Amino acid sequence: MKSEHTSTACNTNCIVLAPCGRMGTNYVINSIRSDTRCFNLGEFFHHHIQSHSIKMNITSIMSDKKSDSIFAYKDWFKQMSIFMRLNNFKIMSNTPILFEEFERFIDVVNEDLFISSTKFFNDEVDKNTVTKVFMYNNDLIKTDDKSNNIDLESVLNYADHLIVVYRKNLLSTYISEAKALQNHIWYVDKNANIDELQTSRDFKIKWNKEDCLQGCLHMMYWSQKMFEVYEKFNGPKCIVDYEILHGQEDKLQYLQELYDKNKINITTNPDKFVPTIKQSKDQNIEDNFTNPEDFLRDYDEVKDMLCCQMVTT
């Protein structure tokens, strides 16, 4: 699962792959983007404002370079024009935008657009790239969600390096995602949302056993699919275990040693590194819930379902 025509001899493209969010991918991405040779393509295949902001930046750079690569975005521009016209009031009034409005981008944010962008940065800007991909964005995961439409194996043909990120503690992942879905605080660093850190740490959710089990089953399924993809990839690759990484005294040095050991072309820069800030706090697990008694009553029944161990050959 790797193309021989991925990039120029001097530049590389890295995919950071995770089963889902809340597994420390932003910390890893920020370590990679601290390498000034690298351009961050972000969650290129996801459909939200942040990803489209990155694409606007990409096309701005293409315009500055007077690059013909910008024509790959012509259909995306058309859809962005319609999107902005229909959602102008919502954007100005900070009103949530329905996902259905983002569906117009699904057909145009595809492998061809990704390939054009990576080639542009490799060949015309002399930059490496890094892209984050979640398993639920690809067609290996069968759901009714229209957004899981990318051919992951095709995309990985244009990746020189693969970094997979996972977290054994699925309960913590579930809690983190459930909180973010309700409080809308997905990311914190010293420059972003720092004023909301304590709000995020104090936030509690209602325990729901069925919802948690369903979420954990999905994460285990996505993880297994990810491990299969990892095994097939025949370029430089590595595994970042959330629990091991965040148990390190010097996390950035640990990641650098992991990249070096696996011949991944990343040189982290401590002066440029902006680490994400952990939004959870040290407390008993039941204190994350508004109904801790219900959680404690159910815990023995569900605890064996709440851990996922990555096993590779």
Features:
single chain, 313 residues, alpha/beta, 5-stranded parallel beta sheet, 12 helices, 5 strands, disordered N terminus
Question: How would you describe what is shown here?
Answer:
Helix content is 43%, strand content 9%. The protein is built from 12 helices and 5 strands. It has a 5-stranded parallel beta sheet, sandwiched between helices. With 313 residues, the protein is an alpha/beta fold. It starts with 12 loop residues before the first strand and ends in an 11-residue tail after the last helix. The N terminus is likely disordered.
Order of helices and strands: EHEHHHHEHEHHHEHHH
Q: C-alpha Rg, in Å? A: 20 Å
How widely separated are the two ends?
A: 17 Å
User: How much helix is in the residues?
Assistant: 40-55%
Q: Return residue spans where pLDDT drops below 50 for at least 5 consecutive residues.
A: 3-9
Q: Strand content of the residues, in percent?
A: 5-15%
The tally of beta strands, per DSSP, is 5
What sort of overall outline do the alpha carbons produce when their principal axes are compared? globular
Outline of this structure?
The protein is of the alpha/beta class and 313 residues long.
Q: Which SSEs are present, and which pair or pack?
A:
Blueprint: E1 13-18, H1 25-33, E2 38-42, H2 49-64, H3 74-92, H4 99-102, H5 111-123, E3 128-134, H6 152-156, E4 161-166, H7 170-183, H8 197-202, H9 209-232, E5 237-241, H10 242-245, H11 251-261, H12 292-302
Parallel strand pairs: 1-3, 1-4, 2-3, 4-5
